[in-house]
């Protein structure tokens, strides 16, 4: 019965326009959207280089990317905390317990996933699109855009998966963001805090947001995966 009551209170909080709740949701989306926007172009460039060029250390680079796919968020948070703390080498930047620090942590977390998925999509692409564009005299940047357009559904799927990875992570955001109300408190850190206080209504409400988001992201991911590998 307590769970049912808490769920009812959570729904009331969501649909009543509770200011604190929606501020937390806004911060969470703002930080994660900026992080994925910054990481995506760099990851696409990296994936393209790894897919189309052969150079010493390429195999090691691919192995490193694949290894970092399972990098725990708390390890990223601890590493950034040590780097950004006052006694750390980057302490003078004063980024610790800021949204920028949270963004850096999320970029580190989503970058390997973006590279790995984008690399797989580009590797599976027909090289004829690239070769044809070059043969017709297109500049290299236009040839690259032509190829990326051919594999756009796979790349969109990579971005969706990357966003899903960072919007729900708690370890890094908690350690480098500090969970400061109205500034660095996002959905996962707020859920952790409210649960530890025994205040379940807000935690459940934020959990609903993550569940709805996860459902939407999975629908989108399934759609774009089907576009990449259509049924024969």
Spatial extent as radius of gyration: 21 Å
Q: What structural class should be given to the helix and strand makeup?
A: mainly alpha
Q: Overall pLDDT, averaged?
A: 88
Please state the overall shape, judged from the principal axes of the Cα atoms.
globular
- Report the major sheet: none
End-to-end span in angstroms? 50 Å
CATH superfamily caption: MetI-like
Taking pLDDT < 50 over at least 5 consecutive residues as the criterion, the unreliable ranges are none
Number of helices: 11
Q: Examine the secondary-structure arrangement and name the CATH architecture.
A: Orthogonal Bundle
What fold name stands as the CATH topology?
Answer: MetI-like fold
* Beta-strand share of residues: under 5%
Order of helices and strands: HHHHHHHHHHH
Number of strands: 0
- The overall number of domains is 1
Helix content: over 70%
What is the CATH class name? Mainly Alpha
Structure explained in plain terms:
- The structure is a single chain.
- This protein is an all-alpha fold and 232 residues long.
- It has one domain (2-227): MetI-like fold (Orthogonal Bundle).
- 77% of the residues lie in helices and 0% in strands.
- It has helices spanning 2-15, 19-52, 58-68, 73-84, 99-123, 128-135, 140-150, 152-167, 171-177, 187-197, 200-228.
- Helix 3 packs across helix 5.
- The mean pLDDT is 88.
Fold topology:
Layout: H1 2-15, H2 19-52, H3 58-68, H4 73-84, H5 99-123, H6 128-135, H7 140-150, H8 152-167, H9 171-177, H10 187-197, H11 200-228
């Amino acid at each position: 019965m307590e769970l049912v009551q808490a769920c009812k209170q959570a729904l009331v909080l969501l649909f009543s326009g509770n200011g604190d709740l929606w501020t937390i949701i806004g911060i969470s989306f703002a930080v994660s959207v900026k992080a994925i926007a910054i990481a995506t172009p760099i990851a696409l460039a990296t994936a393209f280089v790894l897919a189309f060029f052969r150079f010493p250390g390429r195999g090691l680079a691919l192995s490193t990317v694949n290894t970092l796919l399972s990098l725990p968020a708390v390890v990223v948070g601890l590493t950034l905390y040590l780097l950004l703390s006052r006694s750390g080498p980057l302490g003078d930047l004063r980024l610790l317990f800021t949204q920028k620090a949270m963004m850096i942590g999320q970029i580190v977390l989503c970058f390997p996933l973006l590279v790995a998925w984008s690399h797989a999509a580009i590797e599976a692409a027909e090289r004829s699109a690239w070769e044809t564009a070059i043969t017709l005299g297109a500049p290299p940047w236009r040839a690259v855009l032509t190829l990326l357009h051919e594999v756009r559904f796979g790349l969109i799927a990579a971005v969706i998966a990357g966003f899903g990875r960072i919007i729900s992570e708690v370890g890094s955001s908690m350690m480098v963001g500090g969970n400061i109300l109205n500034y660095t408190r996002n959905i996962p850190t707020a859920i952790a805090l409210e649960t530890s206080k025994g205040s379940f209504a807000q935690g459940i409400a934020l959990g609903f947001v993550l569940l709805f988001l996860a459902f939407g992201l999975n629908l989108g991911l399934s759609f774009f995966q089907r576009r990449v590998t259509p049924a024969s």
